[in-house]
Amino acid sequence: MIDKEKVIKLVEEKLDEKMFLVDVSVNKSNVINVYVDSFDGVTIEKCIEISRNVEHNLDRDIEDFELQVSSPGLTEGFKVRQQYVKYKNREIEVDLKTGEHFEGVLKEVDDDEIILETSKREKVEGHKKKQLIVREHNIKYNEIKSAKAVITFK
């Protein structure tokens, strides 16, 4: 089986300062999936450059393999902290391991947690109409079951 650590090293050689590795998987059939992302978006040319570097440094005569290099899709969940940084000040949805669900603006990202700002219209005593209530939620990474970008067409 292809060595995953070797693939990671080969991918990282071709990442520029705005890019980051999201995930590398190698299955038993030697299908290698590489997911990279960037704060500026990932071009096809960059995927080709990474793919060629990996291909040219692995020997197909020793082990045949299939290689796919791409960016994670918009509907895919976040896997690394840099993805949270990329979506700072944008809307995301977060599912916690407790079953709670939040949708809001990602305000802060640090090494241990994120701060998510949610807003919701709620009935407040003394008011006839529902009022907009804004809350901040400090959420530790180990409490998160899944998180992903909210896609809007505004």
Structure description:
It is a single chain. With 154 residues, the protein is α+β, with helices and mostly antiparallel strands. Helices cover 19% and strands 40% of the residues. It is built from three helices and eight strands; from the N terminus they run αββαβαβββββ. It has helices at residues 4-13, 44-57, 81-86; strands spanning 19-26, 31-38, 66-70, 91-96, 101-109, 113-122, 131-140, 144-149. Strands 7-6-5-4-8 form a five-stranded antiparallel sheet. Strands 1-2-3 form a three-stranded mixed sheet.
Layout of strands and helices, then pairs:
Layout: H1 4-13, E1 19-26, E2 31-38, H2 44-57, E3 66-70, H3 81-86, E4 91-96, E5 101-109, E6 113-122, E7 131-140, E8 144-149
Parallel strand pairs: 2-3
Antiparallel strand pairs: 1-2, 4-5, 4-8, 5-6, 6-7
Structure at a glance:
This protein has 154 residues and is an alpha+beta fold.
- Sheet bearing the most strands, described? 5 strands, antiparallel
Uncertain segments are none
Q: N- to C-terminal separation? A: 46 Å
From the helix content, strand content and strand pairing, which structural class follows? alpha+beta
Number of strands: 8
Strand order, main sheet: write it out.
Answer: 7-6-5-4-8
Helix share of residues?
10-25%
Radius of gyration: 20 Å
